[in-house]
């Protein structure tokens, strides 16, 4: 395993649901729209500073829209997850990528969260926590039925795996 | 509450020491006097002095009376009991609080006594369950006699004398060596204390409306010397004050220091000159140790030892009572020896030879340091071009001073990087201003996080983070070589990372592949 045999982390097996792209895009659009709307309204009412405020609105809107167009697709290609009998393995990020691994024997809780937008798109986020305050793993953008099944499977697996989780 | 059972219950319940009322009222009285004096002087502005004092004295007497009653009620209502499986405390002034801990979950029983409490031979006992959760304060007995406190501590921590309760012959791992005090004045406390001293002088003089006078007086002292000398002198004065303060604080904190191993697998740190403390730490909660070297301490060849343990409260609100600190700054060799003894290892893992990180990590550090140093220079230069040429000279001066310092720190930070496996421990080292060498039990690693930014990917580096239930929750191996780091992580904790690794074609081969692809028509 040393020297010439270069190793790397293989990508996790499963991609997230395709609707996650829509979800991410909506999130970015909302995050962009709120400040742009505020700036535009202010610009409409405050005459003297109108040009500056509208310029600021454009300065926020342009990168925001660009992010909304490109980032979700990029994220969709990077975000992947996998649950084996022994561990949960997730890859996230874009420019800065992150691989997280938590062994089944150390998992303490399995949460499923569905925000309003996620409910509409029938998506869910599964969060797996361990005894470490910095070891939580989030799997975003899963189909909600898949997420429910996954949470159940994780709960069963963790119960079956011995260990005191610390 | 009737019958023999009830009587037996009543006998088990214990009260706090009656003198606790006296001690707490005396403490309150002290605070009261401290608050009353400025108020009296303030009131004396527009009425006779005696009248102001009479008013304040009356108010203080009333408050003291209320305190006596409240403390008496609290004392009467407070009782505790250590049952076969639960520790219980009933207390409360108006609302009765009943707190009950399962004995098997008790993780710590720490004693502390300030000078006033020591005069009466009383101690405060804090019983903790090692939960991180904030808000829920541990069970606190305020105050019991020293003998009772020791008895409680032993009773609560002596559990079934498990397998680790082996007699070790000499149970004292470290005891105070007065020569260690020489490392006190090189800590980061010195500038902090010096600054605090200046601040205190200014604040007190402002209370008495004499701040201007003090500043003038200082100005008069330095009438004959230039401004630069005055600043140098004042900084020196602050540094000396800070150093004296650091020495004093060190003596107060570490007097009578002892690190012992007690039967039942507990480490105990006892220390303190005026306020005495005893902190216990179960060995089965210990996941490793951290050898910490702040810059000044490191330059003197010293290090302090902290415990990496699960469920240690970060700070219990008590000033300078760092619960995880096992050993003050001492010579590096002694620190290593104590670390090895604490971990029951023949060789200190913290002194193990470490794998050096690739040179790309050095480049990254140099680049980052230079950016940080040159950013203010660029800002100054741009402003100088726009506004006044004076700023250009300032910018040049900054560049000449800051750039070499940045380079020195970057090179030092690179030299500090390293990681290794030593026996049952994973060792990682990093930092320049605060160099920390962490030895973490390999079985205590409960997950890996691998991070790689775009620049790291290009440089063939990655940052590995071992997550654990203990200490800060995660410990980093910064900028390890891609290949070496992953192999290391897979080897350090068996069966965790290895299933997710795959071999990739070596660089030369891959480039050849790419070339073939591009060559193809």
UniProtKB/TrEMBL annotation, chain A:
The UniProt keyword set, sorted, is:
Membrane, Transmembrane, Transmembrane helix
Bilayer-crossing regions: 28-46, 52-76
- Specify one Pfam family: bPH_2
Name the UniProt record assigns to this protein: Membrane protein
Q: Which InterPro entries match?
A: YdbS-like_PH
Q: Where is the YdbS-like PH domain?
A: 77-153
Does the record carry Transmembrane helix as a key word? yes
Automatic annotation (TrEMBL), chain B:
Q: Which residues form a coiled coil?
A: none
Q: Which InterPro entries match?
A: UCP026631, YdbS-like_PH
Domain YdbS-like PH: start-end pairs = 76-155, 414-474
Listed A to Z, the keywords are: Membrane, Transmembrane, Transmembrane helix
Could you tell me the superkingdom of the organism this chain comes from? Bacteria
- Write out the transmembrane intervals: 21-43, 49-70, 188-208, 228-251, 369-387, 393-411
Pfam families assigned to the protein according to its UniProt record, in alphabetical order: bPH_2 (PF03703)
PANTHER family from the xrefs? UPF0699 TRANSMEMBRANE PROTEIN YDBS, UPF0699 TRANSMEMBRANE PROTEIN YDBT
Q: What is this protein called?
A: Membrane protein
